[in-house]
Amino acid sequence: MKKRNQWNVNISDEEASNIEEYCRVHDRTPQWLFKTGALRVIEEDVQERRADLMTIQSWKEISEGKAEPIHDLLKAMEEDTRIGDEMLESMGSIRKAA
Questions:
Q1: 34 near 42, Cβ under 8 Å?
Q2: Per-residue pLDDT reduced to its tens digit, 18-69
Q3: Which of 19, 37, 67, 98 could form a Cys-Cys staple with 61, CB 3.0–4.6 A?
Q4: How far apart are CA 67 and CA 57, in angstroms?
């Protein structure tokens, strides 16, 4: 038989009322709500840790000269956007002339 754990949580009357109302409206139990919320918090934390590790790895690569800082990439993206905007403007003036 699978072992089950139980935790007691102290919440205010207002918080309890909000939880009960949410569960009533969505036809769920408070246990489901807490379990789902806890799993979501854990998943978000894992994703945030991965992003932090990627940032640290990027900093290390930049400091070792293996990669360029991102501001060069941002400049290239801004330049591409500017060129695209100019192309759209010129296409608009061509359509108006026709």
A1: no
A2: 999 999 999 999 999 999 998 998 888 988 998 888 888 888 887 888 877 6
A3: 67
A4: 10
